[in-house]
Amino acid sequence: MAPLDPPTDEELTRRAQAGETGSLGLLLARHQAPMRAVALSLLGYGPDAEDAMQDAALTALRRIGDVRDPAAVGAWLRAIVRNSARMRLRATREMPGLDGLDHLYPCDHEPSHPERVVEQHAMRDWLWDAVEELPEQQRLVLMLRHFSGITSYQEIAATCEIPVGTVRSRLNQARAKLSQVLLSTATQAHDDAAALTEDSRQEALVTLEGAARGSLSREIAELWPAETELLGVLSRPGERTHPVPAMRQNREAGVRQHLRHVVASRDITIWEMDVTNPAGAVNPCPPTLAWLMIRSDRRVRTLRVVFPEPTP
Prior knowledge:
Strand content: 5-15%
Radius of gyration: 22 Å
Order of helices and strands: HHHHHHHHHHHHEHEEEE
Helix content: 40-55%
Strand order of the largest sheet: 1-5-4-3-2
Shape: elongated
Number of helices: 13
Number of domains: 2
C-alpha cells in the first residue's frame, strides 16, 4: 500500500482553525527549525532566542484564526517569531513575555474577533492542560504574570515571598516546559477549562455573598476546613489564622468585595476583587485585592490576600 501524503500546511491550518489541536501541534513541529533560525538570527544563541520561540508558539495558539492565507502559514509563524524577537530588542521596561496571553479571557462586552477562537474550542483546554503539567511553583508565577492583574516581577516576588531573580528563573523554566508540553499533548483529550473557571467563579460569588451575610453555606464552608491557613498581611504573626474570622472582620468594618476576574487551575485559584469601603473609613482598604489560594482535593489549603499596586 502506498504511503499517504502528509497533510499540507493549508490543510493543517484550516483544521487548526476549526479547533483541531493536533493539527496546530503538527504545524509548530514542522516549522520549528525555520522559526528557531529567525530567532537566532536576531537574538543570537541564548535564553532570549528560546523565549522568543516559546512566545511565538503560544501566540500561534491564540491567533491561529487570524491567518488569511493558510498555505503561507510558515511565513506567518516566522513573522511572529520576528516580532517577538524585535520586541525584546526594543524593550526598555518589563513586559509580559507571552504576547498578551492575559487576553485569552476577553471581557464579556468585547466584540467577537478571530482571536477569540481560543475561547470557542479545544485550544484553550489544550493550553490549560499544559499549564496543569507545570510544577506548582512554576505554574503559580506563570498564572500571576500572564493571566492575573499581578504582573510585575516585583509584585509576583512580594506575593510569593521570593526574590525577583527567582521569579525570572521560574518564569523561564515554566515557559520552556509549557512549550514542550504543548507539543507533546497536542493530540490528547483535554479537560474543559471553561467549566473549571466557571465553577470557581460561582464559588467566589457564593463565598462573597455568605461573607456579606455573616454565614457561609454548608457547601462553601467545606472549602475552608479547620486546617486552612490565612497567610500574609492579614494573618497574625506567630499563630495560625483561619480565613473566616478575617472575612467576618471585614464585614463588620463595612468593607465589601466585588468579584472582577477569576483564574483557575485544578489546585491554584486566583480571585481578583474590587473593594468598596464605607463612607468616612479611617483606614480604608486598598481599591483592589486578590485572593491567592492553594488547594488540595478542592479544599483550600492556604489563602493569601495580596494588594496589587494600582496600574498607572
